[in-house]
Amino acid sequence: MSEKKLPTIKEIARQLNVSVSTVSRALHNHPSIGLRTRMRVHQLAEELNYEPNQAAISFKQRRTYTIGVILPNLKEQFFSEAISGIEDIASQNKYNVLIGQSHDDVEREKQIVAAMKNQRVDGIIVSLAKHTKNIDHFTALKKYDIPVVFFDRVPAQPNVNKVSFDMRGGTREALDYLVANGHKRIGILNGPEEMKSSKERTEIYMEVLQKRRLKIDLSLVVSTDLTKESTRAAMDQLLSAKPRPTAILAINDWVALDAIQYAKSQHLKINEELCFVSYANLPITSYLETPPMASVEQYPYEQGKTASQIMMDVLNQDKETAEPELYINTLIKGGLVIHEK
Amino acid sequence: MSEKKLPTIKEIARQLNVSVSTVSRALHNHPSIGLRTRMRVHQLAEELNYEPNQAAISFKQRRTYTIGVILPNLKEQFFSEAISGIEDIASQNKYNVLIGQSHDDVEREKQIVAAMKNQRVDGIIVSLAKHTKNIDHFTALKKYDIPVVFFDRVPAQPNVNKVSFDMRGGTREALDYLVANGHKRIGILNGPEEMKSSKERTEIYMEVLQKRRLKIDLSLVVSTDLTKESTRAAMDQLLSAKPRPTAILAINDWVALDAIQYAKSQHLKINEELCFVSYANLPITSYLETPPMASVEQYPYEQGKTASQIMMDVLNQDKETAEPELYINTLIKGGLVIHEK
DNA sequence: CTGTTAGCGCGTTCAT
DNA sequence: ATGAACGCGCTAACAG
User: Fold this and answer.
1) Could you tell me how many CB contacts below 8 A there are between chain A and chain B?
2) Could you tell me which of B49, B222, B302 has the C-alpha nearest to residue A144?
3) In chain A, domain spans
4) Which of A120, A215, A238, B202 is 20 to 30 A from A292 in CA distance terms?
5) Which chain B residues in 57-76 sit with Cβ < 7 A of strand C?
6) Chain segment B107-116, per-residue pLDDT in tens
7) Prediction pTM value
8) CATH H superfamily, domain A64-161+300-331
């Protein structure tokens, strides 16, 4: 076990018979250092394999070049793609990424925030836990000059940085597509009522049908708690409506798959008697016998990149000259992807 | 923009008219501090909302309570589940997790290692980039007392900590299952030759067939580079063998799906004329019309947890008393999961 | 151009 | 039981 001490600027200074500040400046290519000494310093640093101690620099500069990312769960594909985007942008900007999973537990979320604050992360990117209503633990970070960027699961407040999916636009596109394909009775398979997206979906449903002068039947808007059983029950409602809907817009691919499975068991011909469109979170629809006929792509990787870029911008903007109360609210446009047969 | 300064022990000391060392000790419940002062300190710390500056502590203690995790890609489900396990165990032990994606680029991998070293992470958990052969950039970390735990994509060297999937055992189980189901001609759809797993699969193939006294035909062992086209070409080979194999063991679910798609296009009845077994990396086989009939589950989340636990053990073991050259090599046993129809 | 000095916040001797 | 003083590695005034 080698007890090799890592070289420090002090050591370099000693060997070169110069002061530490000279070494520090030389290493940073400060203009006021003579070319000659600068070269000697660089050379010895090279030889000794000198690497600046980031822990010391973080301490001194009160900047860690680390951003914290808090998400419900890394296992979910949506989030792992998102963090992949976050990390890509961050690393391009020489930032480190610290992760924490809230597991959709508000208490855990608070703990992570506290831990990250103590770690002195430079900023926090977060997708809120499912039931987080109160975001005081995040707004309090403003006092410590730790910027926060919310993404995907964002709070309703306007005075925060956030990037989220344009649920209204995506839904509008999906419904327009279905109507254009001749569907007049369209069912909605929503998530839990509390979800903001459910409300928005219903809202756009009414908007589009009204514009197209189609009859609005709210019994065609049902909810599932996302479990297979609940989805089946919801489908039961939809399929027993008279007349039966000819198309269903489902909250996500998983729900759509469960719904399709159920519809099949009822001997319905998928994408003929009954069409499905859902919001994409699966990469495998192409291997399915009967996939949804289209999906609204939400680009999680892009969302992550965008959130990360906003964070970089905020961190790099001059604290003095910046407008203090300017917040960024980005909507990611979804694209409707038609699945070829 | 509030310029609120974070409270420090110095500040507490000032307000209480005691010395910083007293405060420090009181906060750590050092026995030599009078109960009275200790309480006063704790109370004021509470009031001021004092939080120790981890950046300072990291600097001073030369310990960051942070482990670095380097993986090829966060988007791949296997890895995101693994890191989920890593993070769960780490956070239970009050460790932070810093992530880096190598994107299967060796140079990038080296950069990340360097950056993490400078960050003074306490240890590194890594799944190697696809083509990393030389692991000097990891073994060099021993000089700095930074332990390394490899997982999944591990190096061949024996003198490292590693946790990997028991490919031999899983393959044996899969082949035994096929033989038990009456298959005598079994094809192997291997990955690139360089992959350690491909060699092992072939090895076990020969072992099992020999033991079962079945004819070994190495023309039934083919390779794909994992792309759809390559898989089709490989399937062409397998299907043109005389007699045709009745079962195929594929390197992973994606390849199996491509192979199944192709076999279907050749009008073969899946799981009747031609059975598939593969290694699980997809959660959705249950929604497929014709899934592989069984999968060898590799438990990525468990692998992550195990790797993380090993890291925790290594970090907590007494550096003085520990055997210096004791390395842990854990094999994760796979389970064969039969997919019900 | 270069050196001296003073911290950053904390834990830790060594005194008292 | 408590305080004074030092140093971790580095940057940044301030002095020449």
Assistant:
1) 139
2) B49
3) 9-52, 64-161+300-331, 167-297
4) A215
5) 57, 59-61
6) 999 999 999 9
7) 0.90
8) Response regulator (3.40.50.2300)
